[in-house]
Structure formats: C-alpha cells, structure tokens
Amino acid sequence: MANARTSEDYREQAVIDTKPVAAGYFTNAINPRMLNKGITNKGAKKIYYSVRGSVNKVVVTLQFKTKGESDFSDFKEIRGAVMELLNDDRSGTQWRIGVKRADWLSGSVTVGFNW
User: What domains can be seen in the chain, in order of their start residue?
Assistant: First the structure.
C-alpha cells in the first residue's frame, strides 16, 4: 500500500505504511479556531488526537504552527497507542500529526484528529 490521508467532516487521518519521504508524512493541518467558528465556549468541540497500529515501530510527532510561522515545530513525540485531548483553547494555532522519515521502521500506523 501507499501512505494515505483522509479528510472528513469530523476527522483528519493519515495511514502510514511505507517509509515517508524526507519531509515525513503528516495529516492535513487542522485549526481548532476554525473548527469551532461560531460556537460559544460552552459548546466548543473537543478535539482528540490518536495513534493506533504498529506503534512499537514508529515515533509519531505532534506538531504546531502559529500565525506568521512558515514551518511546523515539534510539540510532542508519541511512543505507543494514545487517544488524548488536544488542549488548544481555540488559539488559532494549526496542528498536524504524523511520522518523520527517520522515525519509521516498519509496519502500519494510523494517526489523526477527531472532533
């Protein structure tokens, strides 16, 4: 198979099952502020990130980029299966999750955001 991204109304996902290119392989970026546009704080969507699959053979990286920045920065390295709340507080920051080329050994991992 080949690496693939999926974008749907309530999720961004990437399946990584082949060695990524030099830039790595990540989900499309999400912006919590845009996902919650027009929603009051009381009803804001909770956004979760998750990692599933051959998690012992990869290191997954959660990255962010703020307004005015051209490149993403590493926020957290994830080793193992997780589903955690992205605590962004609607700041306008963009987020993505994926695997850098050097951090993939073999297998298949599914990463993404759900809201």
Answer: 4-114 (2.60.120)
